[in-house]
Amino acid sequence: MAPPGRTRAGLIGLWSFDELDGTTMNDTSDAAPRVPLMVTAPGMVTFAAGTMTPNGIVVIASAAAPHLDRDVKNAGAVTLEAWVKPAVGQQGAAGQPAVVAGLDASVVSRNIALLQDGMRWVGRVRTTPDVNGGPDLTSTADVSAGAMTHVAVVADATQRILYVNGRPDFVDPAPAPLFSWDMSYRMVLGNEPTPNRPWSGTFALVAIYARALSAAEIQINFTAGPDAP
User: Fold this and answer.
1) In terms of residue numbers, what domain contains 200?
2) In whole numbers, what is the pLDDT of the chain averaged over residues?
3) Which residues pair with 41 in a beta bridge?
4) What's the whole-number mean pLDDT along residues 83-90?
5) Rounded to two decimals, what is the model's pTM?
6) Using H for helix, E for strand and C for coil, what is the string for 67-113?
7) 105 in the Ramachandran plot: left (φ > 0), alpha (ψ -120 to 50) or beta?
8) Angstrom distance (rounded) from CA 81 to CA 101
9) Residue 211, domain CATH
10) Is 107 contained in some domain?
11) Alpha-carbon distance 205 to 224, whole Å?
12) Which residues are CB-contacts of 59 (< 8 A; sequence separation ≥ 6)?
C-alpha cells in the first residue's frame, strides 16, 4: 500500500526541488502568489532526483517581504518543516548555529528557523522580545551525518515544539503567541542572507504552513516521506 500523501491544509510554501538545473527553485504550494527561491550568491546548486545541494558559499532566498511572514502573523500559528541530509554531523558552534531553513534577515534576527548547532537540531520562533527567536528548542538526539532526516518546528499561542523524524523532541509548553514578526524577512535555505554562516547538506523538501500542525499531521508528513506531493 502506498504511503498517505502530505497534509496540505494551511500550506503557504512548498519547495520539492524537482528542477533539473538552473538557479530558481519553484514553490509548488497552492498559495498565491507563489514564492520562488533563487540563488543569489557566487556559489551554485546541484539538482538530482528531487534533491538540491548547495555547492560553495551560496545564498538561496526569496524576494524581500514574501506573503509568508504576513500569512503566519495573521494566522497566529506556524509550522516549518524540512527533509534534509546533513553533510557532516557537526556544523555551526555553540550559540552560532547554521541555518537550514527559515524566515531570516541575519544571524541575529529571524522570525522562524530550523538550524544545526554542533551535533543538535535547533528550532527558533519569535514569540518573545528576543529578535533571534530564542529561547532555543534543542534536540536531545544527535544529528546523523549522511542520513535523510525530517525536522519540523511548530508554534502557536500555547506551545512551541521541535519534531525530529516524526516525534516531538523538545516541547516548550509556555504560552507564547507570535511576537513582533518582521514582514520583510526573506525565506532562506542553507545560509543567512548576509551570507556568513553556511549549512552543508542536501535538501529534499521544505514547507511552511500558516497553522500549527498536530502531532498526528507531523507523523503523516513523516510517513509520507520527502517525495509525496
Assistant:
1) 19-222
2) 94
3) none
4) 95
5) 0.96
6) HHHHHHHHHCCEEEEEEEEECCCCECECCECEEEEEEEEECCEEEEE
7) alpha
8) 8
9) 2.60.120.200
10) yes
11) 12
12) 39, 40, 41, 188, 191, 192, 193, 195
